[in-house]
Amino acid sequence: MASSFSAMRTYHELTDADRSGLPEQIGAQRKRVADRLAAVGRLIAVMSGKGGVGKSYVTAHLARALARSKQAIGVLDADLNGPTIPRLLQVAHAPRTTHPDGVEPATGADGVKCMSMAMLIEDGAPLAFKGPTAESFVWRGAMEAAALRELLGDVTWGTLDVLLLDLPPGMQRYVELCDILGAPPAVLTVTIPTAESGDAVRRAMRAAVERGSKLLGVIENMTGQGFEGTAGDDLAKEFNVPVLARIPWHPTPDVWGELAGRLG
């Protein structure tokens, strides 16, 4: 993986001898993640199961609103291939400071701490891993899971009230997150009003329930113009959770403040 974070050591870079002890190393990494996150009050995965609903936009602005309410907030951009959180939090691309204990997260707008793959590779460069060319479809998933473990375990988050995890479309990163943490995180879901979005988000919510995640509620984004439907209400009724917010196309700061207050 081309990265400015030389301390990262993904599992695909292990030697053959190292691989023989891989289960023990993964167990040690899980403990490192648990130790690193011990000072985090709440861990919340923000997900939708699909792209195009503005999930990262919602995550970033929710984080800023929570920070303005005098909480210590962090955001981990778990979308390794399409990271956008640093730009949304107004973080400039720059090499991260490393210490023997780990890597410092960046501090963005309103004091929100964040870490993203976009901050670890050259600006504009795609995420690229080294591995057997003939088995790239197998290796890539394992490499991305390893990178997620390291982002959780090697970043010095410090004491936080809330760490938001911005998950990419699909469910693979959520499943990996559950395995890394050893327990399913609480989940906040984002949809747009359309029935098509509702169908995709419904599948994601069902998968989260089956894994044991607590569903905190639904945020319906991009309301009032262009998209028609009742996906937010439909999902809330089906899963017996609240619609925490309806975000219009041009939200004002008070909209995010109300959402932050409802999330508690």
Descriptive notes:
39% of the residues lie in helices and 19% in strands. It contains 9 helices and 10 strands. It has helices at 16-19, 22-36, 55-68, 85-88, 136-153, 172-181, 195-211, 231-239, 253-263; strands at residues 40-47, 73-77, 98-99, 102-103, 106-107, 113-116, 160-166, 186-191, 215-223, 243-248. Helix 7 links the parallel strand 8 and strand 9. The longest helix is centred in the middle third of the chain and has 18 residues, at 136-153. It is globular and about 50 Å long.
Write a compact overview of the structure shown:
The protein is of the alpha/beta class and 264 residues long. It contains 9 helices and 10 strands.
Properties at a glance:
alpha/beta, globular, about 260 residues, 9 helices
The best one-word shape is globular
Q: Would you tell me the overall average pLDDT?
A: 85
Order of helices and strands: HHEHEHEEEEHEHEHEHEH
Report how far the terminal alpha carbons are from each other. 38 Å
* Structure classification: alpha/beta
| Unreliable residue stretches | 1-18
Kindly state the number of beta strands. 10
Main sheet characteristics: 8 strands, mixed
Set out the fold topology:
Blueprint: H1 16-19, H2 22-36, E1 40-47, H3 55-68, E2 73-77, H4 85-88, E3 98-99, E4 102-103, E5 106-107, E6 113-116, H5 136-153, E7 160-166, H6 172-181, E8 186-191, H7 195-211, E9 215-223, H8 231-239, E10 243-248, H9 253-263
Parallel strand pairs: 1-7, 1-8, 2-6, 2-7, 8-9, 9-10
Antiparallel strand pairs: 3-4, 5-6
